Amino acid sequence: MDANKLISISAYAGRLLLESGAETYRVEESMVRICHAFGAKDAQSFVTPTGIMVSLMDEGQNFATVSRIQNRGVDLNRIDLVNDLCRSIQQKQLTIDEFDEQLHEIAAMKRYNFPTTVFFAALGAGGFAFFFGGNWYDAAAAFFTGMAIKVISILMERFEINSFFNMGISACAAELLSLIFIQFSSDMNHSVIIISSIMLLVPGLAITNAVRDIVAGDYLSGMARAMEAFLVAIAIAIGTGIVYSIWIKTMGGMLL
């Protein structure tokens, strides 16, 4: 057993899971499972939202690695694929090189292309308009507002802009567009449009994982994820609030 290679590959699998939005316990369990499957007798892992630590014992020597996590997103398909691969090592009788190769294949898989992602994000925003009691006019406005903020969000992610500013600027765009849309028709409801649009920005997975981590006893990770979700909520509130305040002062408080 090549302990250095094994620990490096297990940390890489953990990185893929954590960057895709997996829960802390899932990442820790998967890395330990990989180490045990390839012959390590004693393996330990510790995961936070921003870092991974893995160690194992081999022939009386301790091997450890630390991996820093810079970016996190949501890719449930990748989580599912890596999770299944980690749990099928012995069943498929994979060698460590074959396992590493399949991990890199999963990492290289492309997600939905840009137009598809933007369209379905916009469709989701439009659907939320009906959920919140809006009409077809509200849904159409939410559709185009959702499309715009998704484009802005993706572009800022590509330029590696901090998520706080990403959410804040996207929220600014959502509020501005919703205010513009309601000027064209009195049948539109400003509240429905803006709420439907910013649902695309709400950190639902972060909140869910925060609760699951806390319940599972991972208090450090749980509180860190909860704080992350809280800061995103603040960014959304600040973004929409600034634009709304400027609009009210500029337009004299007139909303149609």
UniProtKB/TrEMBL annotation:
Listed name of the protein: Threonine/serine exporter family protein
Q: What is its main location?
A: membrane
- InterPro entries noted in UniProt: ThrE-like_N, ThrE_Dicarb/AminoAcid_Exp
Q: Which compartments does it reside in?
A: Cell membrane
Which regions span the lipid bilayer? 112-133, 163-184, 190-208, 229-248
Species this chain originates from: Copranaerobaculum intestinale
Q: Which family does it belong to?
A: Belongs to the ThrE exporter (TC 2.A.79) family.
* Annotated Threonine/serine exporter-like N-terminal domain residues: 11-246
